[in-house]
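Before relying on records like the one below, remember that each one covers exactly one chain. Contacts with other chains, cofactors or solvent are not represented anywhere in the record.
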Amino acid sequence: MSSREHNDSVKRIKLNVPEGVLFGMGNPLLDICVNSNEDFLKKYDLEANNAILAEEKHIPMYKEMAEMDGVEYIAGGATQNSMRVAQWILREPKCATFMGSIGKDEFGKTLAKKAEEAGVVVRYQKQDDHSTGTCAVIVTKSGTCRSLVANLAAANHFTKSHLEIAENKALVEKANFYYISGFFLTVSPESIMMVGEHACENNKVFCMNLSAPFLCEFFKDPMMKAFPYIDILFGNETEAAKFAEIHEFGTTDVKDIALKTAALPKKNSKRERIVVFTQGAEDIIQVPHLIQVDLPLLAGFVAQLVQGKPIESCIKCGIWAATEIIQRSGCSFPSDLHYTE
């Protein structure tokens, strides 16, 4: 069978994933991407591989980047992109729903267009007095390192009241799987708690991501209030190390950190907590069972999870999605290629 015939046959497979089964909530941002160097990072006091929130000293950077040769504007925001990729893998429209806050501007329209083109249902809270958030993406070391600086703007003004609107509440209740980025802890912990409590009370799957080391340290309190509701936790080795330090686990071994994290108090006793820590090109640590694999992508994982696939299959799909997307600019993906085990 030729490659084209294989893809055509895969396209005809119906997954029968219900509409609205996956719900995501986070910060919708438009990425401003440039290739630069260590001098530029030093100028704005940035690290090559890190993710931070913009401070006053970073604001001039966005204008400077906009004037650079080769600057690209790409639909961004970790959670919204996770929903886009999951929707791409699932193939059937409207499986994924996303909520976040944008401004009433062109950047907001661009984000909505990209999400809707992917088949994601978006229900933005739109701000009159704040512009759509942006994220500076500075690529260095021949594409191997990325420094992210998020200027949340409108994204920082999402409120729980948006979830309480009848049609939005219905979308929350319709879902069976939830994913929220740890970055949203800086915006609306109350919204996270509302979704987490609903998931727990109805024995649905609630997933979060540690997202960045600074969240483990400076947003420890809201993180730990949400933690008992987490069924599946994602993170990388740097975030795991900071989490262990803050909670005085007394170990730097990633496997031990994963086990101790999984054992933290949990509301829904019907499900074991699963912890998935990535380590760059090294093995992934996943408990309660340890599996040796490379380079996962969260969205691929979640796309299999909502189909009831075993964790091993979720991780394999994550690897496949990462392999495809890493070859392309920003969070984009080929329309004519589909995943099959």
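The chain is about 40% helix and 20% strand.
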